[in-house]
Amino acid sequence: MYLDQHYPFEMVPLNYPLTGFDDFLDFQTMSIHYNQIYKEYIDDLNHLLENEKNLQNLTLDEILFNPTYLPAAKRESIIHAANGVYNHQVIFQSMNPNPVMMVSVELKNAIEKKYHSMREFYQEFKKACLSLGSCGFVFLVCDEHGDVHIEKILGSATTVPLNLCPILGIDLYEHAYYLNYKHNIKAYVEQWMKYICFDYANQEYDFCLKAIQSEKEQPKS
Ligand SMILES: [Fe+2]
């Protein structure tokens, strides 16, 4: 959701207060992350596109999937800002202080097809986070067949060029957790897992399945 918006990009409103994560992340961490870091990516992207009329109707996916359309002089900066917007829009919606923990039948089946059980999925997800270190993101993604897997994204990049759609994700940059967890990434990830918003993940997976189905029904030219 919100990944189909175009210029001028707007911050995804949170459906929870920044003070909502009592025993997970404090207000200062959430406020710096949302009101400063995420906002800066939005402002930078809008600023970079403000005189680029032919790019202003492009969605984030379109900007990131085929960057050869972007003007060479600004390409790197636009991609950097769009990456930041894209990933933060996923990670802020992937958690909620009062999460719906119920996984849809479709998503549960897809996760169990790959990881055998939800328990193993959680273990593998945690392993991926710990092996990434503190400079990137870990996502559960859906591929063009509707299959899901865990994908590690190192540095400023997204899953878009890989043609993978993020279903949920966690930010492992230090700004996301350091004030509360210092170097204890394991504790941060374990707490995050208590707040995964499966309501969002279910919706995103459903959206992916519908997009795949609609693609299949398109007449071949
Ligand atoms: Fe972040």
Report on this model:
- This protein is mainly alpha-helical and 221 residues long.
- The protein folds into two domains: 27-93, Helix Hairpins (Orthogonal Bundle); 105-216, minor pseudopilin epsh fold (3-Layer(bab) Sandwich), CATH 3.55.40.20.
- It is 49% helix and 10% strand.
- It has eight helices and three strands; from the N terminus they run H-H-H-H-H-E-E-E-H-H-H.
- The protein has helices spanning 27-49, 60-65, 72-93, 105-115, 118-132, 178-181, 185-192, 198-217, and strands at residues 136-142, 148-154, 165-171.
- A three-stranded antiparallel β-sheet has the order 2-1-3.
- It is globular, with a radius of gyration of 17 Å.
- It starts with 26 loop residues before the first helix and ends with a helix.
- The mean pLDDT is 94.
In DSSP terms (H or I, runs of 4 or more residues), the helix count works out at 8
Specify the helix fraction band.
Answer: 40-55%
- Low-pLDDT residue spans: none
Mean pLDDT: 94
What does the radius of gyration come to?
Answer: 17 Å
Number of domains: 2
Main β-sheet description: 3 strands, antiparallel
State the distance separating the first and last CA atoms: 29 Å
Number of beta-strand segments: 3
SS class:
mainly alpha
Secondary-structure element order, N to C: HHHHHEEEHHH
Give the overall shape. Answer: globular
Fourth CATH level, the homologous superfamily of the largest domain: Iron/manganese superoxide dismutase, C-terminal domain
Strand order of the largest sheet: 2-1-3
